[in-house]
Amino acid sequence: MQALRHDDAPLIGPHAVLGRLDDEPEHTAAERRFIVRSGDGDRTFLARLPRPDTDPTRWAIEAEGARRLSIPGLLPVGEVGGGPAELPWCTAPYVPALPLPAALRAHGGPLPGPVVQALGAALARTLATAHAQGVTHAGLSPAAVLLTADGPRLSCFGAVRAAAPDGEHRSGLPGLDSGSLAPEQAAGGRPRPPGDVYALGAVLAYAATGHTVPERDELPSFLREPVTACLSRDPARRPQAHQLFSHPEPAAHAATVLDTATPSPIPLPASVVVALAHQSAQLLAAELPVTASRTRH
What we know:
alpha+beta; six-stranded antiparallel sheet; three-stranded antiparallel sheet; 9 helices
């Protein structure tokens, strides 16, 4: 949990703000994420707000869309709020979580191969479930992946759609990770499942190397084929999400499978587990901001 900044509000809706989830430069995050506590002090949530340089109305539409979904592996949205006098916001039940970039920092570099392999299979399953329901996440990037003790959760739903309407170029827009943005989406194309697969390839490259656009030889051998396939500039040449974790047909495509027996939960490195425990301890010791306490009474 990161300390609040001088311009952070003490309240998000009725919830008291305890700290930031992220300690990333503003240009790398699709949204702002905070750990908050309910007015009665009994419940803790992860609250999310749009960036100040993005369209809050488009962000609110995506938050409401996410609230209507129930897909394992997607960060659930339980409450959507806001009004004419405040930015829109939404909440999810809090569990200790580290954004993927923070997990790499805690570990001191790229994650071990078995962790990346299991992470890739888990994320591919989440995307496959979403795609089977006609849902495109359109916001996958390293910062969107939250690692928890129970497995990864995908946040930043609809970040690409919120950044700009279809038909407008999205390259270089605030909050969009250029390395995770499929070329057709960068050019203004409607987000579709192949764009999620492209972003998945970038996320796995990041987890294994520390950046989203590595040279092929930088990737561990088990990732070279699947990541190269995911990052194809031609959407038609990318695998479908379900093909990345299931036994493929024909057998000649076996190199594109990430994992067929994913451990559950993902075997997180000890350094990441320690960071999650530290976050939980910080939360237990956190006191409500003075302004928030006065508001409650």
